[in-house]
Amino acid sequence: MAEIAHGGTAAPAIRPPVIEIGVLGWMRKNLFGSVPSTLLTIVAAYMIVITVPGIIDWAFLRAVWVSDTSAACKAPGAGACWAFIADKHRLIFFGTYPYAEQWRPLIATAILLAMIVGSCDRRLWNRWLLAWWAGGLVVCSVLMWGGVLRLTYVSNLDWGGLPLTLVLSVVGCVFAFPLGMVLALGRRSHMPIIRWLSVGYIELIRGVPLITVLITASVIFPLFLPAGVNIDKLLRAQVGIILFEAAYIAEIVRGGLQAVPRGQHEAADSLGLSYFNKQRMIVLPQALRMVIPPLVGNFIGLFKSTTLVIVIGLFDLLNSAKAALTDLNWRGFSIELYIFTAAIYFIFCYSMSKYSQALERDLNKGTRR
Amino acid sequence: MAVQYGGRPAGGTHWRLSWNDRNVRSIVYQIAALAAVVAGVWYFVDNTLENLRRLGLASGFGFMDREAAFPIGESLIDYTPADTYARALLVGVINTLYVSAIGIILATVLGTVIGIARLSRNWLIAKLASVYVEMTRNTPLLLQLFFWYMIFLELLPPARQALQPVPDVFLSNRGVRFPVPAAADGWSLMGAGVVIGVVGAMILSSWSRRRQAATGQQFPVVWAGLAAIVGCGVVGWLLGGAPTALDRPALRGFNFSGGVEVSPEFVALLLGLVIYTAAFVAEIVRGGILAISQGQTEAASALGLKRGMILRLVILPQALRVIIPPITSQYLNLTKNSSLAVAIGFPDLVHLANTAINQTGQAIEGIAIIMAVYLTISLSISLFMNWYNRRVALVER
Amino acid sequence: MNKLSVLAAGAALAVAAAAPAQAGKTLDAVKQRGQLICGVSQGTAGFSRPNNQGAWEGLDVDFCRAVAVAILGDASKVRYVSTTAAQRFPALQSGEVDMLSRTTTATLTRDTVNGFNFAPVTFYDGQGFMVPKKLGVKSAKELNGATVCVSPGTTTELNLADYFRAQKMQFKPVVIEKVDEIRSAYFSGRCDVYTTDASGLASLRAVDAPNPEDHVILPEIISKEPLAPTVRHGDEEFADIVRWSVYATIEAEELGISSKNLEQMLKSEDPAIKRFVGVTPGNGKALGVDEKWAYNIIKQVGNYGEIFERNVGKGTPLKLERGLNDLWTRGGLQYAQPFR
Predict the structure, then answer these.
(1) Do C146 and B254 touch (CB under 8 A)?
(2) Where does residue A165 rank: exposed (0-12), middle (13-18), buried (19+ CB within 10 A)?
(3) C135 and C113, same structural domain?
(4) Mind listing the pLDDT tens digit for each residue in A304-353?
(5) Whether residue A249 sits in one domain with residue A286
(6) Residues of chain A whose pLDDT is less than 70?
(7) How far is A161 from chain B (nearest CA, A)?
(8) Mean pLDDT score of chain B, rounded to an integer?
(9) Which of B123, B154, B343 comes nearest A30 by C-beta?
(10) For chain A, is the Cβ count within 10 Å smaller at the N or the C terminus?
(11) Rounded to an integer, what distance in angstroms lies between the CA atom of residue B205 and that of residue B225?
């Protein structure tokens, strides 16, 4: 095509063949590039044609959106029963939290989410952010527990639903991070005993499934404490999650520490900085910057893993949703429920993973060779 | 803790006993840390012993020899409720290993296919693969397990109206049941034949590699090897009297009998683990392939290799180097995630140990067993993959 | 390294600070916190399950309330902790709950190896089988080869294995810990048989089955399941109070005292009744509780018959007969030891 343009005088520009440009050109290149590719496209398109319309029909066209009873959903020809979700949404979102007080976890959830979203903006990464977090967590605790400001006290045994999932994962991450950082430094320490202790802890925890840590927290941990001292089930699970998560964060931070060039350590040493100051001012800032994306990835994993508290009988988002299934009046709509619950998890995890990818690109800008 | 400053550094050395001495500080810190850990552990152990004594609880592993008395749904070894707790837990260990091993193989295959599909030049295929990856990666595994189990229970018919997609294969909410060859002497001869064939194929392949290195001549080793394996198998089968009888499933009484049954719990767990882990494997494979420089592909194309061959001979061997460490941790994750079986009732180690804990009340021992087994498995997989990683790395240099 | 040592020292301090002022006896602990912590199930109709307002109710719950009345004088001073079958014993052993009232079968090993004491039986139960009617099964002896749904970690699981072994029959267990999961497995046809205590079967059929007529409970009762409130070893005062709180409800029914006629009974001349309601003092002091304790239990919770009828009796969806749970005077097994 390019030669044509060289054709000296005022020869009118000839348009490229239709099959090379526009929709057709794109399709030829991306869908029918070769014989195997064409075959794959046909097979895939066929699969889509036989499944997707049926799903759309079921999920939207024939779906029952509003209904107080399950009768409409059970009528022949009815599709997905979203009315079930509508009827149960408060149970799903707030679990066993006292019904009349559910505005409190609602606000607490909103604050937590606002803080998480706010923390995503790099312009806000400064000292104030820590203060905001501290303040936000205090406000959330007051709202969730009550007992002051004329709010009735709600035992944390009654917490449930999305707020519980958020609390378990956010608090888990916030407390596991410093512990993980200390473990990572310990693993890279020159002092053998400290190194062994850190390595032992990290490998022990990483070698066992979270479920065993939770069962330990729920079943054995009480025996570790002296008679008369009790820590409730939620707190024990939370401690279990923190201890578990710290080992994984330690390994991520260690990756970052290893990537800090040796020269940086030597330069800091030659300035006569103490170990603490060297880590605080030279090494950690560089190391942590590199590990932010994997840390976000780790947080996504943690967010999903909190569902395991179901085995020790806590009502997180998934367990609250399953509790909705036990209503005898709404029997047999588990597919809708699982899809809805999966969608909530998906929205959280997908946006976090997109953010982490964007952040990775952003942070690499300066250092890209 | 007073120990921190009071701890005495090793006496009798020539170090100056000063806080400004780096070695002194280091020793003090280490003693302090060790003391804190020892104190903490001692505190917990002491409390535990005190609690056990106060509550009059038994401790120790004596219960392992007692009769378990509880039934187990599926087992690869013989088990009856008359067996001991030790054997019941062994059933659990074997089930865990079994589902993990199959899961790892299937997840690797599926993940590699999806990972390559995401890089496909075909837009539709690439998009479908990425939709799959995003959907499975961003929802909790436990939710997926419940979902698959629910699909089995609610969408498949009961045993008496079992679907029959292929004659003699029955699909119902009791699981999948398919025919297997009835036991006959001929099968062992056929097995022996296949083993001989495999050995032969291995010898063939090493001979052809040496010949290619020496002379450059290629030998169709894949086809020849397959022919050797199949041929020896067939010969063994014929020698054994060519048994053809099948053990067919049939509905008798409450359930199907005959053939082999795979339970819904097992299928749901395997499906969940494979589909979830494959998404992560796919991303690792994709990353590994992308890490190989474009120049390698171009050079291989310039040599006239076809796309499939480039992938197989040039890209994947190099990508393996990048892929193996992260994929190892995915294998470990899959194994650890198999403990979620407890939620849908597949009798894995955690499930059975949990039952044993309930029946005997000996929680500490039960959890200790679970942890020891998982640590052993994790360590073994790590060691094996490290060995494999070294091997791949050596080949590459 | 400062950080690490500070952390280590901090951890040690925290551990030291967590040491309790006193390792209190259960009774003192209950009085001090003004609340009884009672381990209940995660939801068993008629025994313990939160109603629509989130308040716990049921036969097991009523005995928690009775104990709270005896110690604290107020039936509402109970905190309920729902426990899975697996968690209940560790929860009691560790002191997370003061007592269990959770359809727990009294057995020899639990009494000895697990270190528990059982209060008098609050409900005599036995294990049975439920099957879909369309299978046409009439007796448990016809269950050879069946797939059976059962909860793990219970005596039910062991009895099931024992029964099939004794009858030389085969079966395939499906074992899931979450109760709703195992129930939906049964109702979807994953299993042919569901087995649990007969009262549980009645509740399952009446309340949970999409259509109760589609399921039959087989006549065989294969085990004895005396369900009793459970406390820890080594705390005799508290165990005594739990024991006599249960007896109080039975004794009241024997004496004809109910929450309705309680006020008249205060004026009764019968010495047994006078001792029971505390008009003649002595019992309360002996137990270390208020003299009006039994009076208060009947007033706030009711006698055994009232508790039974309210939660599991004819007027409830469970529609259970008194049967073994009737008073000994009427052919049942409920029998209070003398209040003197």
Answers:
(1) yes
(2) buried
(3) no
(4) 999 999 888 788 898 888 877 777 677 778 888 899 999 999 999 999 88
(5) yes
(6) 1-11, 18-20, 228, 328, 364-369
(7) 14
(8) 84
(9) B123
(10) C
(11) 8
